[in-house]
Amino acid sequence: MHSFKYALILVAVIVLATGTTMAHHSAVVFDENASVQKTGEVTQFIYRNPHMIITMDVDNEGRTEEWKIEGQSIAAMRQHGFDRSSLKVGDVITVKMHPLKTGRTGGLIQGMIGADGKSYSMDGSEYPAPTRQVYPALMPWEPPPAGETWQMREKKTRPSVLPIVSDGTAAGDGSATGVTAGALDPDNLSKKRPPAPFDMTGVWQYRGEDEWRANYGSFEFKPGPEELTAKGKAFHDAYMEASKKGERFGDPTAQCYPAGMPRLMTRYGSMMMIQFPTAIYMVSRLNNEYRTIFLDGRERVPSEKLDRNWGGESLGHWDGSTLVVETTGFTDENHLIQAGYVTGSQLRIVERMQMINDGNTLVTEFTFTDPEHWVGEWKHVKFRDRVLRSDIREANCIYKDNLSLPGMGN
Question: Is the confidence at residue 1, as pLDDT, over 80?
Answer without folding.
Answer: no
